[in-house]
Give the backbone structure.
Amino acid sequence: MVERKTFQLSRKAIALVLAGGRGSRLQELTDRRAKPAVHFGGKFRIIDFALSNCVNSQLRRIGVVTQYKSHSLLRHLQRGWSFLHGEVNEFVDLLPAQQRIDEESWYRGTADAV
């Protein structure tokens, strides 16, 4: 009989979802919104898949890094992912990109934001 070892993630663990992608290959779908904000399956967005995986894996401290045309994504996250309980340190924290005065170039992609 094979013994399965399970482990529990620390309650201090934070999931970081990279959601700043432009989605240039999606063309018309991402003209006005970030790739993670594109609709699928009715009322859902692409980012909901990653966030659901986090919550179902008991990761309830989540940071979402955004950049490209993130307004509709931010609105969706504020409206649809506010059910986590802040009083027990559960959250979806929005982390928009920032550019400093001394920096000439903007982030080059999702991984560059990290």
